[in-house]
């Protein structure tokens, strides 16, 4: 049984992405006790799935590692993974949160030696790679995973494969008898940092994400670039595993569209500008390598304009001012063909590409109104700043579509608000 | 220039967008267009228009009154509704196209020989006279709209279809002599006249 000490001076942080980690660390470093719960088996959220960060094009795991170090050595933070909030009751300074913990079947004894994984052959979809490939049914979520502990997929529990994993463990870390647990925590304030999820691309019918193999999403493209990713760091067409060189990016795929998400997801322009540089990185001077960005207008917010300017100078990258109307497929080579009209001159085009990347919109990943009432969200489901929210504060992409820099700022602000609430509880603040 | 047209030019001097907003059905949506181009790219007849809807909207905002109203572009719309379904801002594009066509027609500056306009007029006259369409006279008028020779040619081309329709009871050859319209044709005509009066007054066309 998991035992967690929490009082109404404790801050509960829901979601262990970069925002939740930041809020938890900032609050703990100010001397507050924090319980951080994360739905998946490891911290890091979507940032851990990125290949590089704009604007500096550095490696995301670097920034994550710094935060993991701050977090690991802080005794005031208790991390629960594979945990989700199912209900919140109570009021500012006095909440009760019901938390469900899914069994991991691996306990704290795990040294991540990997012997259990070697002992099984069953495979499951690799969620970390957006199901683009398979992973063993006993797996480490990703190379940098924290907690650094294996996970056993429930599908092999109760099978000889599960037993084989258990037998292979020298540390008595495999526990196949684990059951789902429910905890009730008393907390004073709650930071909701459940982040974002990609909009369901299959719903954008004219783009045929569900019909054409060589139409993928920006998050999948990001995984392709990772050496540890599904394609070993190569940009390969799903239809034939050949290198894709002539690549199209379609902006506002699901965003700024009353048929889909009405809001501007804000990050997708920068994400595609960044990803267009991957093409040069991958193919060097190869003349066949090209990136074409189809856009309504480029929204490289504030200082990112510099980044946009730089990409504009890249001879490999071209810009077509047009929201693509629809995509068809060349039956012979399975190349996607993009149809539309270019606003600059109103010229009609039918452009064939090797691969199409949909700059997919960002939407809130968890709906807070399902677990508690009274929290204000906007039309897209993002948590708003509102007095009625009491001691519950949105942070990072749960409150808006933000880049990492802004998500972290936003999370720090949420931590400050939560600190004020628990200070009032303890009488440290009026 | 027709009188109605001169009147409008005076009234909305230099603001074609305002004129469209005031007088064209659903015209107040035009300003909402964000020039993404999805309508233009989604139009099945797109390659055959001089100006796709997206361009028409921009021309309206740029004050290109003459070019828009005398263009035959909006007459090409077949009401497939692809553009409406896909427009990210839910502009009723199909309706705006018909609204523009209708407005140009009312001002008397729509392209005279545009086949859609001519068909629409023949259709309207046909249905408005009795309250019900007489398909036989409608098709005959349509075949002969470019003169007797081409009318006979088109009639012969379509003879098989026509006979098929007669055989299956879908076309009544007696329609040529007797056509049953609505009961109160007089009342219908009075109603249409009144409706036109009201509309003309509202649009300042009277
Ligand atoms: C294609 C693409 C590329 C991008 N590239 C960049 C870039 O280069 N630079 C940049 O600055 N930004 C980039 N971003 C934006 C970046 O991904 C976000 O800013 C960042 O992920 C925000 O972090 P977060 O913690 O708010 O949310 P997330 O990363 O989504 O983390 C949320 C966490 O909460 C967990 N969670 C969800 N629901 C629950 C629940 N019910 N209970 C418990 N836990 C839950 C999730 O498992 C996850 O771990 C990119 C975005 C896209 C779409």
Q: Can you give a write-up of this model?
A:
The complex is a heterodimer of chains A (430) and B (206). Chain A is an alpha/beta fold and 430 residues long. Chain A folds into 2 domains: 10-196 and 363-429, FAD/NAD(P)-binding domain (3-Layer(bba) Sandwich); 199-362, FAD/NAD(P)-binding domain (3-Layer(bba) Sandwich), CATH 3.50.50. Chain A contains 8 helices and 22 strands. Chain A is globular and about 65 Å long. Chain A starts with 9 loop residues before the first strand and ends with a helix. Chain B is an all-alpha fold and 206 residues long. Chain B has 12 helices and no strands. Chain B is globular and about 55 Å long. Chain B starts with a helix and ends with a helix. The structure holds flavin-adenine dinucleotide. Residues 14-20, 37-40, 45-47, 50, 53-54, 84-85, 193-196, 218-219, 222, 267, 271, 274, 362, 365-366, 396-397, 402-405, 407 of chain A line the site of flavin-adenine dinucleotide.
- Quaternary organization: heterodimer
Low-confidence runs of chain B:
none
Stretches of chain A where pLDDT is under 50 for at least 5 consecutive residues are: none
Greatest interface (CB-CB under 8 A), with counts per chain: A-B, 21 and 19 residues
Globally, the shape of chain B reads: globular
Note the beta-strand portion of chain B. under 5%
End-to-end distance of chain B: 16 Å
The helix-and-strand class of chain A reads: alpha/beta
| Level-2 CATH architecture of the largest domain in chain B | Orthogonal Bundle
Report the mean per-residue pLDDT of chain A as an integer.
96
CATH homologous group name of the largest domain in chain A: FAD/NAD(P)-binding domain
Sheet bearing the most strands of chain A, described? Answer: 5 strands, parallel
The main sheet of chain B comes to: none
The CATH class assignment of the largest domain in chain B is Mainly Alpha
């Amino acid at each position: 049984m998991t035992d967690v000490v929490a009082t109404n001076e404790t801050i509960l942080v829901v979601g262990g992405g970069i925002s939740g980690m930041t809020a938890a660390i900032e609050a703990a470093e100010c001397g507050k006790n924090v319980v951080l719960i994360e739905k998946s088996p490891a911290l890091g959220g979507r940032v851990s799935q990125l290949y590089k960060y704009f604007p500096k094009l550095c490696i995301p795991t670097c920034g994550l590692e710094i935060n993991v170090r701050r977090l690991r050595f802080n005794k005031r933070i208790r991390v629960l993974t594979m945990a989700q909030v199912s209900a919140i009751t109570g009021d500012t300074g006095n909440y009760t949160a019901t938390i469900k913990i899914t069994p991991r079947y691996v306990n704290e004894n795990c040294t991540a030696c990997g012997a259990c994984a070697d002992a099984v052959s069953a495979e499951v979809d690799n969620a970390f790679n957006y199901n683009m490939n398979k992973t063993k049914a006993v797996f480490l979520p990703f190379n940098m995973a924290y907690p650094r502990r294996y996970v056993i997929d429930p599908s092999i529990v109760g099978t000889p494969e599960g037993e084989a994993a258990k037998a292979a463990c020298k540390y008595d870390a495999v526990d196949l008898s684990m059951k789902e647990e429910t905890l009730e925590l008393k907390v004073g304030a709650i930071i909701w940092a459940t982040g974002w999820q990609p909009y369901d691309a299959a719903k954008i019918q004219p783009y045929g994400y569900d019909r054409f193999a060589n139409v993928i999403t920006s998050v999948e493209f990001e995984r392709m670039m990772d050496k540890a990713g599904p394609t070993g760091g190569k940009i390969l067409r799903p239809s034939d595993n050949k290198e894709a060189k002539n690549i199209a990016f379609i902006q506002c795929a699901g965003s700024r569209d009353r048929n889909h998400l009405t809001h501007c997801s804000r990050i997708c322009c920068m994400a595609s500008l960044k990803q267009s540089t991957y093409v040069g990185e991958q193919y060097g001077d190869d003349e066949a390598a090209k990136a074409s960005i189809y856009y309504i207008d480029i929204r490289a917010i504030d200082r990112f304009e510099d980044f946009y300017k730089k990409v504009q100078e890249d001879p490999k990258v071209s810009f077509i001012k047009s929201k693509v109307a629809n995509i068809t497929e060349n039956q012979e080579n399975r190349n996607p063909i993009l149809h539309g009209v270019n606003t600059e001159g109103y010229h009609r085009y039918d452009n064939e590409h090797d691969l199409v990347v949909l700059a997919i919109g960002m939407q809130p990943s968890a709906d807070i109104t399902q677990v508690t009432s009274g929290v204000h969200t906007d039309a897209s489901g993002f948590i708003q700043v509102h007095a009625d929210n009491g001691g519950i504060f949105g942070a990072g992409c749960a409150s808006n579509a933000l880049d990492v820099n802004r998500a972290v700022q936003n999370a720090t602000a949420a931590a400050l608000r939560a600190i004020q609430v628990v200070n009032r509880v303890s009488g440290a603040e009026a | 220039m027709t009188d109605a047209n001169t009147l409008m030019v005076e009234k909305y001097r230099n603001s074609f967008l305002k004129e469209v907003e005031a007088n064209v059905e659903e015209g107040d949506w035009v300003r909402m267009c964000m020039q993404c181009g999805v309508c233009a790219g989604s139009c099945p007849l797109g390659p055959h228009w001089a100006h796709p809807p997206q361009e028409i909207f921009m021309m309206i905002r740029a004050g290109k009154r003459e070019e828009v109203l005398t263009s035959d572009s909006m007459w090409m719309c077949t009401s497939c509704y692809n553009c409406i379904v896909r427009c990210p801002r839910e502009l009723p594009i199909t309706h705006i196209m018909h609204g523009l066509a209708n407005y140009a027609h009312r001002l008397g500056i729509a392209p005279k020989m545009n086949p859609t306009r001519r068909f629409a007029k023949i259709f309207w006259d046909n249905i408005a006279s009795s309250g019900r369409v007489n398909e036989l006279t409608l098709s005959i008028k349509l075949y002969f709209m470019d003169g007797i020779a081409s009318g006979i040619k088109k009639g012969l081309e379509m003879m098989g279809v026509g006979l098929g329709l007669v055989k299956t009871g879908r076309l009544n050859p007696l329609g040529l002599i007797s056509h049953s319209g609505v009961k109160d044709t007089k009342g219908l005509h009075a109603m249409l006249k009144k409706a036109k009066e009201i509309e003309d007054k509202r649009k300042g066309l009277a």
